[in-house]
Amino acid sequence: MIVKHLEEIVDSKYDIDTETWNARRLLLRKDGMGFSLNDTIIKAGTETTIWYKNHVEAVYCIEGEGEIEIVATGEKFAIRPGMLYALDGHEKHYLRAKTQVRTICVFNPPLTGSEVHDKDGVYPLIEEAELEANRS
Questions:
Q1: What is the pLDDT of residue 17?
Q2: Cis link prior to 109 (omega < 30° from 0)?
Q3: Which of 60, 110, 111, 129 has the smallest set of CB atoms within 10 Å of its CB?
Q4: In this structure, are strands 21-27 and 93-97 parallel, antiparallel, or unpaired?
Q5: For residues 15 and 76, is the Cβ–Cβ distance under 8 A?
Q6: How far is CA 63 from CA 19, 68, 79, in A?
Q7: What is the top-level taxon of the source organism (predicted)?
Q8: Which has the closest alpha carbon to 20: 95, 106, 86, 76?
């Protein structure tokens, strides 16, 4: 059984804080669940371009108001508490936060914990061999 508390993650190496978002990585690839789970804050008044070309993601909003826009189609969806969206087609999108937005995010393949978006909004696919080499 795995038991973790958010307060253990905050201010640790698994608390990734950027200009537009803050992801607290609760479950990671090393936990062996087959997915990863983040408690993520999207900062108020921000826009982030995201494209998970290496992952699929499900997002459940628990706080705040924002919007997701699919780049290819221009389709926009309001984000508010109780709303779920799943990026099952690797959709490149804009994520906008009117207020601070708090979400629970599930990724497959699971994240290792160190990922941040590159210039295209992509998380790299970090392989186990690469992780081991970086630990040495």
A1: 94
A2: yes
A3: 129
A4: unpaired
A5: no
A6: 19, 15, 9
A7: Bacteria
A8: 95
> What is the CATH number for 123?
2.60.120.10
**19 belongs to a structural domain:** yes
Position 3: which residue type?
A: V
Of 10, 4, 42, residue with least CA distance to 24:
10
> How many folded domains does the chain comprise?
1
Q: What SS3 state is found at 53?
A: coil
Task: Determine the pLDDT at residue 131.
Answer: 47
Q: Tell me the residue range of the domain where 116 lies.
A: 6-127
The pTM assigned to this predicted structure is 0.86
The answer to whether the CB of 24 falls within 8 A of the CB of 15 is yes
Each residue's pLDDT tens digit, 17-31? 999 999 999 999 999
Q: What is the dihedral of CA 90, 93, 97, 98, to 10 degrees?
A: -140
